[in-house]
Amino acid sequence: MVDPVASPDRLEDGQHTGVGGDECLYYVVTAAKPTVVTHARVGRFLAPDRQHLLLARLNRVDVYEVDATADSVEDGERGVLRACLELPVYGRVVALEVLPGDAVAGKRAGASRRKETSTSAASGTSSDAGHQKRARTGTRASSSQRTGAADSPPRAAAADDELATDTLFLLTEALQFAVLRYDAASCLVETVARGSVRSKIGKPCTRGQFVAVDPEYRCIALHVYESVLKIIPGHWGSEAFDVRIDALEVQSLVFLKGTATPTLAILHADYTRNRHLLTYEVLLEERDLREGPCSYTYVDSSAGLLFAVPPGAGAAGGVVIAGDQSLTLYAGVGDHVKRVITLPNDELVSMRCVTPLPTDGDALLSGAAAVDVVGREHLGCRFLLSDQAGLLYLLQIDREMVMRLECIGDANAASTMAYLGHGYVFVGSACGDSQLIQLQPPPLSTSAMVPATTPYRTSSGFAQSASARRTQSTTPHEAPTLAVQVLQNYTHLGPIQDFVVTDVGAAGQGQMITCSGVSHCGSLRVVRNGIGITEHASMELRGIKGLFALKRRPTDEHHELLLVSFAAETRVLRMTDDDELEEVESSAAAEPTLLAATLPDRPHIVWVTPTAVRLCGASLTDAPLAQWNAPAAARISAATLDESTSALVLATPDGHLRQLRVSRRGDSIIEVAHAQLPAEVASLHAAGGLVVAGTWSDAGVRLLRQAPGGGTRAPARPAPMPLLHTQTLLPHSLPRSVLLTRLQAEEDDTSSPWLLLIAFGDGRLFTYALQFRDSHDDDDDNDDDDHHHHHVAHTTASVTLTDLRHVTLGVRPPTLYELSLQGTRCIFAACDRPTIIQAVHGRLVCSSVNLREVTRIVRLHTRAFPDAMVVATEHGLLLGSIEPIQQLHIRKYPLGEQPRRIAHLPGCFCLLTISMERGEERHHVRLLDDVSFERRASFDLPAREHALSLLAVRRRDVFVVGSATVRDTEIEPQHGRLWVFAKEGLLLLAEQEVRGAPYALAAFGDEPVAEPMISTAATEGHHAYPPLDRYLAAGVNNSVVLLEWTFEAKSGERGLRPVCSHYGNVVVLKLEARGQLLLVGDLMKSVCVLRLLLPPADDWEVADDERHSDRRPENGGHQAQLEALAWDRDTCWVVSCAFLTDDTYLLCDNAYNLLCLRRNADEVREEFRSALERIGAFHLGDLVNVFRRGSLVMEVAAPAVATSSITMAAAAAAAANGDTEGDTSTAVALRPPHTALLFGTVSGAIGMVVAVDRAHFAMLSRLEAALRGTAVSLSVPGSDDRAPERIVGIGGLQHAEWRAPLTDRTAGGTAWGLEAAAAAATAGQRGIIDGDLVERYLDLHPSEMQEVARQMGTSADQLTAVVEEMARLHS
Fold first, then answer.
1. Cβ 1152 vs Cβ 1183: under 8 Å
2. Structure confidence by residue, pLDDT tens digits, 66-77
3. pLDDT digit string (tens) for 402-448?
4. What is the pTM (predicted TM-score) of this model?
5. Are 1028 and 1004 in contact (CB under 8 A)?
6. What is the DSSP letter of 144?
7. Rounded Cα–Cα distance for residues 737 and 748 (Å)
8. Which of 143, 450, 556, 900 could form a disulfide with 410 if both were Cys (CB 3.0 to 4.6 A apart)?
9. Is the CA virtual torsion 251, 255, 257, 260 positive or negative?
10. What are the phi and psi torsion angles at 724 (to 5°)?
């Protein structure tokens, strides 16, 4: 058993906590994974006979199966890409290459056996016994992984499938590489080789890392340090070596094709920014370089991309240099053939990436190439290029090295491209959505596609802007070679430059609106957590009042009939053999339907209308078998059927309840019980032998017991229905819908308690737990409730409602329905915010459904649409399937320009955007509706004035925009303005000039603070103080300027005036206010905390009278001041920062770290009180642009009364103490979700920072440490085999090293020396739990869960309950 976690010093190795009494106890988890695509490669990774697309997404590799066959081409979008596998990587992937498996296996087989130290020599690191031991236990992948490729026995003959399966080479930003291979037999990712290319000396590359693979796979070249190349031979057992090159700033490098010796072409820049091309031959035997066959100086000064060209007719391979104004081909070894295509001069065409296209063996492109002016018989090669604007170009080079370039289409700006075959191309983007496109022969009508332009030819210019190239029609003289069609978009949220969290409709669940994308790919994304519905069919049908799905017999699996009720009629639809719905005639079609259901004990259907209750056959077309008519004085207003007792309960407007049943012979309907209520029934439901009725006038609910059924004759008089309990509800609260249920996890589970759900007209939902007491056993302990499993016993004398909980679902009355989804019961609340309610470990969990205005719903299970739902909305009928899990759903609103900042006030959003007009940036202020996102108003800033910051001041209902005039002669802008706009039509209210660029804005007193802080200096004398919302702070260049709101009584004009300034920063980038505290994030000097000192009230009155004149109070203390409280003594390049508490702060730096700092406000000594202490550190691996307080899940209120359920904190303490005997069937919520911080990153990830208590932190720390060495199952869709894979990550990468914060980063790149790595590993992750790793516990096999729990000395159920509760904070 694990010892109780009472103090941090009792934590085991690998765990982390804060320092002192106020520890850093936080949980960081990713709610949405990174969506950026940095590398795309094609290979046969999972199987030798299948092609796969491998995508690098920051810290993982996604594998997709490619089905680009001829059938797929004919079927359009169907089945081109199918997700197969996700490989988590403990590092930022900066290079990804596919190596043919036969080449790797052959070279490995030819390598001789070496000593164990050769592995470290090949990777460039030192070796010790401990390191090799960790390698053996870190990944249970393969023999080559356990012993190292160098010392493994030579593989003389490899299997055919092994030779055909490709391997994967990846390099992380920490300069660790791995060569991976998938073993289909064991469903395992093996590590063929791994190592590090770090060096003790050397300057990191300012432009990032470059990797080039020899076309013959003889070696790999890495450029990670300036003027140094790392050469890794293709024989993985060989030793890697470093060589120096005469190149300063490398822009691109590539291996030439068709050379006898590996020849590397390098494009670099000198001190004067001139570009030069060098070539080197790699001498693997001599472990050295020699000058290559050619070198060229002073090439295009804007060149930044190289790509190799295969050999032409009688000439060796060449290279193409792509610049902003030209494409230059250098070909041949002796004659140095040079070809140039000059691009337009009026607008730059910067090529960003390229992918080769096949010239033969591809039916689609071969057919398209028939119209080539080059001609197929002369075609040497062709390439697809993409520029920074997203335009796609086709470059064709014939065998005589003559080039032809044409713009063929438009896509999102590409960061990488991969050709998949049969014309399919994957376009991976970091600026917008990634896309799957298809290259096709141009159709006769090009209206649906972007037409091509007149081609560029060798040594000819064609002046044409990018905008013109997007829209220009094809010239009649030359037909386009190819056309581009976009087949599918893959969502990319990044780069998230800003976002807001709103709760439109006050439903208790936030949604995130992000500023995503770059340039014309810019858009707003609405991110909402909920359950989606996959639509199968829909039809317009208004006025639906009820939906009922019927079976022929209760034992049938599928439904056959669907009743759709309207205000004055009912339509009966039948499912045909062709899986279509056809309308059938029925005798009761002229009335609305209140209830229709198949009886659970006989093949009959009970059909209730306002006038009668009919017992019908399965077809509903024949005459009723029996009928019960409503009383003449009252029509039936509500009806419900208890499936456990087959009792039918009706309500009439006079307050009468009647219990009916069908006789045993099935020839009559008998009234067996009756009850009189004091008011008209507003809602009714029966289940488990109980009846619950909500009434209109007295705003209450009553629980009654049903009378026992049986017998063939009608009783002489109906029996009374005993009243068990009356619950008075809140005044003016009308129970519009009630439901009795047991939300058990499985269908055969009979141990779940009964719950009563009450939905009110204002959108609120109350839940109660039912406790029963029998009349003959008042004093007995009723722990054994077997007689209540299926229905309530007839001896039940009373019912008590306990454990009240409530949640707001929407603003309209919800209607509750009990459904069964994937074998689990749930409650669907149909309202303006549809919600699914489920029970997880005894706790109700609310999940929003991404639909609007659902009025009715019913489950329709058919052969064609199993487990489907028919949903009625205000506009029609929808047939769809509900997704089994809750997840993030994203809606896109394209802008066509780049959004920079966003702010929200009730009813509208304000946006700062950037557009390109004639090659010049123009900045705009846009006002959008917060529901439809339609533009209401717009304000264009003057030319050369850049919008930098945006603030919504809620107390004053205005937007404040900070802008600066950018001049080429100024290093930093010296002239700026603050614009004050009203939210109605963006009416300009005021302007205020500032001396610099206002990079950040913050308003005091604009948000409620739990514990408002009043300064000690201000409280002396017991003065009253002016409100905080009079002040506004602006970060202007290197100062923080405090401004005061003013109001001119005569003219009614509002404005701002500077009050004071605080200096001492380099550049103020971020500001956040909390009470009187102001958190300042500096470009280089980390963060500092300022405090607003307010003047006394009498001085405020003087200032208020003289505010409009030039006179100022003579006493400087008569105005507010900013005082420095504490600052971080260490240097840190801050990107974003936020308050966690008044004394705890969170920041993200440019080394992708999250740092937690604490202010020691109670410290006596000034030098310690003014110093911020770093109490938490965590390497996130991504750049956070903004933090916002909020939540994406629905907030459920705490129970109103004490319950016997254990809290989650108690479960955590029990788990930490090793208590496996406690009851873990129930759990309540953690700390409310609004205490969390959401953040958005450049890669498109969404994360959350949540505060946890000591018990949770200690237990989750132990779980995190245990999971670092736990085996989990890895399987590929379509495979039945499961095999262990280490959570520690592929390639032997360690989780502890990945999450250890980087502390040695320069402005130009990461200085990953051995000393920096050692220092980071020593400091390590502390104070913050990696939620991504912890929640992978839920993906383990049950036996693996038991093993982890055994290591921790607790039970798997307790761990599962705690981890699921943490996961529900964001999903």
1. yes
2. 987 745 544 444
3. 888 888 888 998 999 999 988 899 999 999 999 999 888 876 543 33
4. 0.81
5. yes
6. H
7. 27
8. 450
9. positive
10. -95, -35
